[in-house]
């Protein structure tokens, strides 16, 4: 263990007086403190360690503190233009009108689902009349059926296909 440092004989009574009462050590200790720096520092250390009771706040101090602070602040100017119910209704109507307009503008710019086409010319319509109703029908089958007809059936078919002669008037 380490041994305490030797202390001069003059410092021992002064330190004992400081330990007893650091605020008022006595006249002899005060005179020694003016000469000895080590004892003066020891007194400051004792004074720093001494516990001082905290000052008590008056009753209701903390409860009234927010009101006192608010009274010290400058007064806030009141809002001069209060919005009434009519103004709120007008603002809501304007918002709805803008929203509906934007909605209908977006619908107007959409591509149509069905596009309009011009009517087909008459020559195209007449040429399509002779086409069969079957879209993927092979034409060779028709020719094979015609070849399989008997001569009487063939004459009847040709008679039906030829237009009747028109007589001039």
Describe the structure.
The structure is a single chain. The N and C termini lie far apart (154 Å). The chain has helices spanning 11-20, 27-35, 37-49, 61-72, 85-108, 122-129, 139-147, 151-161. It is mainly alpha-helical and 169 residues long.
Count of discrete alpha- or pi-helical segments spanning 4 or more residues: 8
Structural class call reads mainly alpha
Q: How much helical structure, as a percent, in the residues?
A: 55-70%
Distance between the termini: 154 Å
Mean pLDDT: 80
How many strands in all? 0
Compose a concise summary of this entry.
With 169 residues, this protein is mainly alpha-helical. The chain has helices spanning 11-20, 27-35, 37-49, 61-72, 85-108, 122-129, 139-147, 151-161.
Please give the structural blueprint.
Blueprint: H1 11-20, H2 27-35, H3 37-49, H4 61-72, H5 85-108, H6 122-129, H7 139-147, H8 151-161
Helix pairs in contact: 1-2, 1-3, 2-3
Keywords:
57% helix
